[in-house]
Every structure is written in C-alpha cells, then in structure tokens.
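User: What would this chain look like folded?
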Amino acid sequence: MKLSFVALVLVLLTLTQYVHSDSVTVVVKKAQLLACSCKLNSNAELKSFVDNEAKNFPYLEVKFNGGSPRISFLDDSEKESELVDISLMKSTEVVELLKTKGLVYQPKQTQESATDDVGTLVK
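Assistant: Here's the prediction, encoded as structure tokens.
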C-alpha cells in the first residue's frame, strides 16, 4: 500500500507532536549573564543591554568572570539547564530571548515618567 506524500507528512507531524508532548519542560527560574568585562565593553549592543535593560530583569545576574558573553539559564534547583552564546546578539534580541525563556520583565520607571496618583510628575 502506497501512502501519499500528504498522508506521510501528517503521520510524521502526529508522531512529532506525540514525542514532544511527553518531553520534560525545564522551568527557568533565573539566569546569569557571564562575560569578560573587556569583551562586553567592546560590544556596543551588549554593553547597551547591560547598562539599560539588565536592570529590568530582577532574576538576571550579571557576572564578570571571563570568556565570551553568554547567558546561563538556571532551573529551580539552581542548576544550569541551558547555556546560550549571546556574543553576536543585539540588545533587543537578548531581551526577547530572556522573555521567551520566561524570565520576569519589570521595566523600571524613569524619573521623567514617574507620576503620582493624581498624574503630576513626581520629583
């Protein structure tokens, strides 16, 4: 009996979904951005991320310990579940990566945008 191409594709998709539905999902609780300060300072995009965006992720720790810029994702037992090289990423791509992995994103208010309950600028 010959299967048509479409039927074969459907069978393969069904099997793929079955295999992935039983896989274990690792929950990322926190992350560490690891890098050599000289490599980080020579990469304008990643320096911008550290200076402007890292503070918006309360569960992201920045550590200067040498090596190529990378992010270590940690599970609930503080064990590394994944290591991602970010040396070629833009700041916006790092933000999206962290959000995709489920890290909490809490933008900090700047003084110019902070207002009280009545809507007046707080200084």
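The longest strand covers residues 30-35. If you want, I can go into more detail on any region.
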